[in-house]
């Protein structure tokens, strides 16, 4: 299992989507990738 923890975003959604895309967790259309849908990777927002 992989965990991606993100903090201090305070509603900065463009940054959230940029990070998710960079980590391979969202595609170009901002849809979750298989890694996220399958539960292989978990995202924790702090």
Gross morphology: flat
Share of β-strand residues: 15-25%
Distance between the termini: 19 Å
Helix content: 25-40%
* Mean pLDDT rating: 96
Order of helices and strands: EHHE
Radius of gyration: 10 Å
Main sheet specs: 2 strands, parallel
Integer tally of domains: 1
Biggest sheet, spatial arrangement of strands? 1-2
Structural class: alpha+beta
Helix tally equals 2
Q: How many distinct beta strands?
A: 2
Regions with little confidence, pLDDT below 50 for 5+ residues: none
List the topology elements.
Blueprint: E1 2-6, H1 13-22, H2 34-37, E2 41-45
Parallel strand pairs: 1-2
Describe the structure.
This protein has helices at 13-22, 34-37; strands spanning 2-6, 41-45. With 46 residues, the protein is of the alpha+beta class. It has one domain (2-45). A two-stranded parallel sheet has the order 1-2. It is flat, with a radius of gyration of 10 Å. This is Metallophosphoesterase. InterPro entries: Metallo-depent_PP-like.
């Amino acid at each position: 299992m992989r965990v991606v923890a993100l903090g201090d975003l305070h509603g900065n959604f463009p940054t959230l989507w940029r990070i998710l895309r960079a980590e391979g967790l969202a595609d170009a259309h901002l849809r979750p990738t298989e890694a996220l849908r399958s539960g292989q990777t978990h995202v924790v927002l702090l």
